[in-house]
Structure formats: structure tokens, C-alpha cells
Amino acid sequence: MTAQEVRWGDLGCPTKTGVYQFAGEAISVKIIHIAVAENDPVALFTILAYRPPLGRPEYMLGHRVA
Hints:
Elements: E1 2-7, E2 18-22, E3 25-29, H1 31-37, E4 44-50, E5 58-64
Parallel strand pairs: 3-5
Antiparallel strand pairs: 1-4, 2-3, 4-5
């Protein structure tokens, strides 16, 4: 796994769970991320990337860091 970062506003400040686009990749957002973001467009989250040996990488939001 590797980690990157993304601002909440770069995901469009989601209000529903789902998959959102950032830098050409689909990133999973869960209800806990929506609650933690507190609708703050500058909230900074880590992006976790799982890279299986076969197939495409999968991305999801991690922890809020700022």
C-alpha cells in the first residue's frame, strides 16, 4: 500500500457515500469520511492505494490529517 493526500474539495465535497474521481482515479468515500470532513473543503485526507499483483489498483480515503 502507498499513501497520497487529497483535499475534500478536490473530491467535490461529497454528501453521499460512493466512488469519486480524483487525478483520473476512482476513490471510495464512506459515511465516516463525510462525517469527519465536516463539509470543510480544505480538509486533507490520505489516499490509500491497494495494488494487487493482478488487476487495477483500488483507492480509498484514509484518515483526515488536517
